[in-house]
Write a structure and sequence with these properties.
The structure is a single chain. Helices cover about 80% and strands about 0% of the residues. The chain is built from 8 helices and no strands. It has helices at about 1-15, 20-90, 100-110, 125-130, 140-175, 180-185, 190-195, 200-250. Helix 5 runs antiparallel to helix 8. The chain is rod-shaped, with a radius of gyration of 36 Å.
Length: about 250
């Protein structure tokens, strides 16, 4: 092809056909420019396809993380609401006249004092932020993802604060009641139970257990609110991402 164009140029020069040669030269330049533009467009299309494939991969990872967080959050909400219901039932016993210490103690012992470990699947979002590739995600989805992260941080902060306060109380309580399983072990050990003088420690035990439940109430009520808001935002983000995926498929 190059030899062909060279032969045409040589022929025109020999025949002194300057005007036609200039027109030919301009046409050749135009063809070269068009060729470059086509090559650039092909390269740009390839880059766009690569970027879009990367974006779709991130969408799939985000959907997986968000659905896991949504399921986890709903399970935790159920657990915390169950704890709150049982705690409110405990509070209702105080409407009775002249409660005995054993009644209060026995009811407190039915309540859950364990903390529930909280964790969220934020690896994909954090990876996007740290790598700078979050720019691949539309701004509207980015903003909602940041809202989800903010709720997660608030939930973890509230839970961590409550656990520290509750654990301090439990450490002091252990001096008066031993391990949480000791009461069950002493069920058939009246002599040992008498020796340990549980009745003397009962005021501190009741106060300690009651304080633990108060710490849990504040923390879990806050967590329930933030978890529900987080789930709402997760639903919005999932719908937005699924819409973007559908656009890509169409």
């Amino acid at each position: 092809m190059i030899k062909f164009f060279r032969q045409i140029r040589k022929t025109m020069v020999k025949e002194n056909r300057t005007s036609k040669y200039l027109l030919y030269a301009i046409g050749e330049i135009i063809l070269v420019v068009i060729g470059i533009l086509i090559a650039l467009q092909i390269n740009q299309n390839a880059e766009n396809k690569k970027t879009d494939n990367t974006r779709q991969d991130y969408y799939a990872q985000l959907l997986e993380d968000l659905n896991k967080d949504k399921h986890f959050a709903n399970e935790i909400i159920k657990l915390f609401e169950k704890d709150r219901k049982e705690y409110n039932t405990y509070l209702e016993i105080y409407s009775a006249i002249d409660l005995s210490p054993s009644e209060v103690y026995n009811h407190l012992m039915t309540l859950n004092i364990m903390s529930t470990p909280l964790s969220f699947n934020s690896n994909t979002i954090e990876s996007l932020r740290s790598s700078g590739e979050i720019i691949l995600i539309p701004l509207s989805i980015r903003n909602k993802l940041i809202d989800v992260l903010r709720f997660q941080e608030e939930i973890l902060k509230s839970s961590d604060y409550s656990d520290k306060g509750k654990n301090n109380v439990l450490q002091e309580l252990g001096i008066y009641r031993g391990a949480s399983t000791l009461d069950r072990r002493l069920k058939n050990q009246p002599q040992l139970k008498s020796y340990l003088e549980f009745h003397k420690n009962m005021p501190q035990i009741i106060l300690g257990l009651d304080a633990v439940q108060r710490w849990k109430e504040v923390s879990e009520n806050d967590s329930i609110i933030f978890l529900k808001l987080m789930v709402e935002d997760i639903d919005v983000v999932i719908d937005m991402i699924e819409l973007e995926i559908k656009k890509h498929e169409d």
